[in-house]
Amino acid sequence: MNDTRVERLCAGVWAFDDANEDSFYLVEGETRALCIDTGAARAPLMPLLSKYTDKPIDLALTHAHIDHMYRAAEFENIYLGGADLRAWRTLGPLYAAGHALYALPPRQLGHRRFRAIEEGHVFDLGGRSLTAISAPGHTPGSMLFALARDGLLFTGDAFGSGEAIWMWMPGCLTTSAYRDSLDRVLPKLAPYAQFRWLGGHRLQGVRGERHPHGRRLTIQAARDMRALCDEMLSGRAQGKRVRIVPFVPMRVYSLGDASMVVRWRQIR
């Protein structure tokens, strides 16, 4: 049984939110369709997607974390940022450990058949195209996908999804490296400032009982994230203790529309 929530964003573009609040997206062109991420639902994904398109469906991953790629093996053509593939010795074991964290049955990915993409890669779907933008931080090879025709930017977890970005896991960049990455990324985001930004867990941006601090994901979150890195590195930011997994001490730091969960030793 699939209890995934579905929303039509515009003609030929759908958003899906699974029971874990993992978000993934389907973009249909005239000749092909592209799924962006897969979520981590137990039910097979392809039967659900096939209800919305009869075109061949490729998969583009924003980054290599289990809640974005658990159903990847269902696709023939799978694309992932080259830096994430090159970091598989770190990200692969993290994927394996994620089965326990999310209480999921183990699934093999066959990552060796993934196709590496870099900045500027274009997915031509026929009448619609998406362009990849490199945004290292949450993982070394995190990618954004811009759908200019429809004013949509798919951001994965590059800046959080309305709540804190997780920067405490193996493979996440240090605070200074993330700051440097944001210095490179922010100028490239200027053409997309007025786009609708769609994160990897978009329901986190809907403020309510479950997400009392949720806020809409916009370019301001990326700008504030850059400022937050400076505040953390200077020692001016005051973090609060938070517990996500046992025996891993970490803190959450916030500034404006940005917040970050990190281990102390990564603030360097």
Report on this model:
- The strands form three sheets. A seven-stranded mixed β-sheet has the order 1-2-3-4-5-6-7.
- By secondary structure, it is α/β, with parallel strands linked by helices.
- It starts with a strand and ends in a 6-residue tail after the last strand.
- A hairpin with a 2-residue loop joins β15 and β16.
- The chain has six helices and 16 strands.
The largest sheet has its strands arranged as 1-2-3-4-5-6-7
Shape: globular
The biggest beta sheet reads: 7 strands, mixed
Write down the Rg: 17 Å
Number of helices: 6
User: What gap, in angstroms, lies between the N and C termini?
Assistant: 45 Å
Helix content: 10-25%
Q: Unreliable runs, pLDDT <50, ≥5 residues?
A: none
Order of helices and strands: EEEEHEHEHHEEEEEEHEHEEE
Tally of strands: 16
Overall pLDDT confidence: 95
Strand portion: 25-35%
Return the structural class: alpha/beta
Question: Can you summarize this structure?
Answer:
The protein has helices at residues 46-49, 66-69, 82-86, 88-101, 175-189, 219-234, and strands at 5-10, 13-17, 23-28, 33-36, 57-60, 78-81, 115-117, 122-124, 129-134, 143-147, 152-156, 165-166, 196-199, 240-242, 250-255, 258-262.
